[in-house]
Each structure stands twice: as structure tokens, then as C-alpha cells.
Amino acid sequence: MKRSSLFVVAAVLVFSLSACGGGNTAQPPANQPSTETPSTTAPSGSYDAATAEALFKNTCAGCHGQTLEGAVGPNLQKVGGQLSKDQILEILNNGKGAMPPGLVKGADAETLAAWLADKK
Question: Which residues form the signal peptide (predicted)?
């Protein structure tokens, strides 16, 4: 009985951590027009909201839900009311709890942190 319980816990952990990974964003072929919306700026800085949303959906939604509602990871719908852009960026870079570090890096992390900081 204990062995099967351990297996279930391990399987859930593996699934939840693998759902947070990714980062592969599909690019349209060079001969096809992009379907992205024009850049949008917001209060926490200049960033492209469409790019930030795509980064979230491709990298974070597996744990945080398609609409930031939370799933395996916490609800992020109002994360900007609790954390600043710099605090969010620190979590993206260093991880927190079950979230591994570095799922989104560099300029992508900056864009995602600014977008999340505007969620209030």
C-alpha cells in the first residue's frame, strides 16, 4: 500500500513540474504574416502585451492556468497587487517553492514580469 501511494505522489510531482516547462514558442513561417496584435504599453513599463501573454501561455499556464486562475501553481490574477515587477522577476530568475528557476530568461523574463506586475 505504501509503495503505490509513493508512486502516485511521485507521478503527480513529475507531471506538475513538467507542465511548468516549455518555452518553445511557435513562429509563423517567414512567408506568412504574423497574427500578433500591435505592441501595447502598460504602467509598469514598456512591453508588448501580446508577447507577454504568449510567453505566459507557452511557459506558465500549465501550472498557473490559462487565465492565471491557478492550478498546480498559485493564482496570479492579482499578483501585481502583491508583488512588484522586480520581485516577480526575482521569482522568475531564482524560482520559488516547486517552481524551478530560469523557465523564462533575459528580455522574455523582463517582459513577463512587467505584464504580471500590471495584474492588480
Answer: 1-21
